[in-house]
Write a structure and sequence with these properties.
This protein has 81 residues and is mostly helical. The chain has a domain at 28-73. The chain contains two helices and no strands. It has helices at 3-41, 48-73. Helix 1 (3-41) runs antiparallel to helix 2 (48-73).
Length: 81
């Protein structure tokens, strides 16, 4: 395997991981928000403490994955002096 083939393989994995981070980040954030709001409407039968903890953890995890994906799309380019 040449250097160019290896580079292209790593680049394609990077694109896949970035798109998965963004997609799953949005998914986790939406589901976590729905768990929190569905509990406040009384449509879920789990205890409120569990719903708020689960929903909060999903929102925080989703926002982290979304941040990681967006950070990979727009890298911090520092220009040398």
């Amino acid at each position: 395997m040449s250097y160019e083939e290896n580079y292209e393989r790593k680049r394609s994995r990077s694109y896949f991981r970035t798109s998965m981070d963004i997609g799953m980040g949005i998914f986790y954030t939406v589901i976590g928000t729905l768990i929190i709001y569905a509990r406040s409407f009384g449509t879920m039968t789990i205890p409120p403490v569990i719903a708020y903890i689960l929903g909060g953890m999903m929102v925080v995890g989703g926002l982290f994955r979304l941040y990681r994906g967006v950070k990979a799309v727009f890298p911090n380019k520092k220009e040398p002096n």
